[in-house]
From TrEMBL:
Pfam families: ADH_N. InterPro entries: ADH-like_N, ER, GroES-like_sf, NAD(P)-bd_dom_sf, Trans-enoyl_RdTase-like. SMART domains: PKS_ER. One of its GO terms (molecular function) is oxidoreductase activity, acting on NAD(P)H. Belongs to the zinc-containing alcohol dehydrogenase family. It comes from Canariomyces notabilis. This is GroES-like protein. Signal peptide: none annotated. Residues 15-369 form the Enoyl reductase (ER) domain. Keywords: Oxidoreductase.
Length: 369
């Protein structure tokens, strides 16, 4: 049997395409007690991937980007904690803080789980980072600290506002709060109303509506609101979402997936759940608290029972392997720049020039073969 060799998409500096070349193969010493070596069969692209490629983040180049992966377990240290959960041949998905764009990736055992049944790798690979991000901000004790989701949860009679409900993080957040017994209220563009309602949101508002602040606040004040989560929208999204919190008659907790530069900008009366600069828990510790929501609990169970949707659905690019990742990153950049029109352009490129008029959000995926 030939010895394994590894390759990666290397980022030699910012503002240039990645280059595929050899990369060190993780050893048992690298895996230690809590990591598993995974042969990747599918990679998913996140908005942070093109951002990190384009901007000087102060990294010591060259670096390997990428987070979401799905594949098969190739090695685990005998007698390790990881070996009590996974064995060679298991089909798994999970994520890492960068270093994902490789043929072989070392994953933390708490940030991965088995793929249920015969589900194709392209499906669960879209969930990793975004489900974990949503879980951290919704259920983490430093943030909204909502009750955990579970199968068959009873209705609480409380709502949660998801600002940016059609985003990848928002798509997961909507499903998670519903599974925890809350009513999901969401914002998105009009083009995505049907998509967001299909995820279970009871009310959806157009974030571009000039009266959206008053309309959403009035809806939240029809009952008790457990909090607001800004899932997407950068600084503009933060401002719009906390205006809703300020307009509400309730004192609302507010958590954002995007860092708030200046807490003094937040209106009085808004209970911001935001860690101060420099105090953010390092990866992977920041994700461990809520793994019972994701890889170590609810998400795994719900996927196996068909109770959680793979959303946004995967759009698999035509070029395969590591060489296809740059194509997918370029398409992600188009989507970020053009929004709904960018999604249409990406779908048309991938599907050979089909003139699709109405499209829903997608998550770009690259397959090994």
């Amino acid at each position: 049997m030939a010895a394994r060799t590894n390759r990666a998409l290397w980022q030699d500096t910012f503002g240039v395409p990645g280059v595929v070349r050899e990369s060190p193969l993780p050893t048992n010493d690298d895996l230690g007690d809590h990591k598993v070596l995974v042969k990747v069969h599918a990679w998913a692209i996140n908005p942070c991937d093109y951002m990190l490629q384009d901007r000087n983040m102060g990294s010591s180049y060259p670096v390997i980007l990428g987070c979401d992966v799905a594949g098969t377990v190739e090695a685990v240290v005998p007698g390790s904690t990881a070996a009590s959960q996974f064995r060679v041949g298991d089909r798994v998905f999970g994520f890492t803080a960068n270093s994902g764009f490789q043929d072989y990736v070392a994953l933390e055992d708490k940030l991965m789980t088995k793929i249920p049944g015969d589900m194709a790798y392209r499906e669960p690979v879209v969930l990793g980072l975004c489900s974990a991000t949503a879980a951290m901000f919704l259920f983490g004790e430093d943030y909204l600290h909502l009750d955990y989701p579970k199968l068959g949860a009873r209705k609480k009679g409380k709502s949660v506002l998801i600002w940016g409900g059609s985003s990848a993080v928002g798509s997961n957040a909507i499903q998670l709060v519903i599974a925890a017994g809350y009513d999901a209220i969401a914002t998105c563009s009009k083009n995505n109303f049907d998509y967001v309602k299909g995820l279970g949101a009871v009310q959806v508002f157009d974030y571009k509506d000039p009266n959206v602040t008053e309309k959403v606040a009035a809806e939240l004040d029809k009952g008790e609101c457990a909090g607001i989560f800004m899932a997407a929208g950068l600084k503009n999204g933060n401002v719009a979402a906390w205006k809703v919190a300020a307009a509400s008659k309730q004192t609302l907790k507010f958590a954002s997936s995007n860092f708030i530069d200046n807490l003094d900008d937040v209106p009085k009366g808004v209970d911001v759940k935001q860690l101060s600069p420099g105090s953010f828990k390092p990866f992977p510790d920041c994700w461990f608290e809520t793994t019972l929501v994701t890889f170590g609990g609810y998400l795994s169970e719900a996927l196996a029972k068909g109770a959680f949707k793979v959303a946004p659905p995967p759009l698999v690019v035509n070029r395969i392997g590591l060489e296809g990742i740059q194509e997918a990153i370029d398409l992600q950049r188009v989507i970020a720049e053009k929004g709904h029109e960018g999604i249409k352009e990406a779908v048309n490129r991938v599907k050979g020039g089909m003139k699709e008029d109405k499209v829903s959000p997608v998550k770009l995926v690259v397959e090994r073969s």
